[in-house]
Amino acid sequence: MFSDYISRLVQELQLQNVPQLSSGQSSFGLELKSSPITIYDAAPGIRIDSKLGPLPQVQTDQFMAKMLQGNFLGQLTRKAALGLNEEGKEVILTLFLPVVRNYREFRDNLEDFVNTVAFWKDEMARHPGD
């Protein structure tokens, strides 16, 4: 299922120079809208991650409060979750789909995820700089 969805996505988006997905491969990385996105096989579901950039160093508490508001009921994350990496220095967005019934569901969720990544990158860019 995972490899079928990835192959179909590559074909649909007409991605060039993408390495073939090998048998048993459990992750796939790509860049959409200038954002690195990694898709993981979590059979029967799928996990999608993206690193949004460094946590703002100015008014950090205000930005983290905005992240919490965005996470509340998935209102500004379209069911994904904002968080920080292990070091607490980089903002990440993660979407876990426990079950994916068909390719369209996968593609629609990925599209929402990519749009959410773009929204939060804009939010980070608008946040007062260093």
Question: How would you portray this structure in words?
Answer:
This protein has 130 residues and is of the alpha+beta class. It is 37% helix and 28% strand. The chain contains three helices and five strands; from the N terminus they run αβββαββα. Strands 1-2-3-5-4 form a five-stranded antiparallel sheet. The N and C termini lie far apart (45 Å). The mean pLDDT is 89.
Helical residue percent?
25-40%
Biggest β-sheet: count, sense, barrel?
Answer: 5 strands, antiparallel
- Ranges with pLDDT <50 over ≥5 residues? none
Q: Strand tally, please?
A: 5
Strand line-up in the sheet with most strands: 1-2-3-5-4
Write the layout of secondary structure elements.
Layout: H1 2-13, E1 27-32, E2 35-42, E3 45-54, H2 60-71, E4 81-84, E5 90-97, H3 103-126
Antiparallel strand pairs: 1-2, 2-3, 3-5, 4-5
Which features does this protein show?
single chain, 130 residues, alpha+beta, five-stranded antiparallel beta sheet
Summarize the structure.
The protein has a five-stranded antiparallel beta sheet with strand order 1-2-3-5-4.
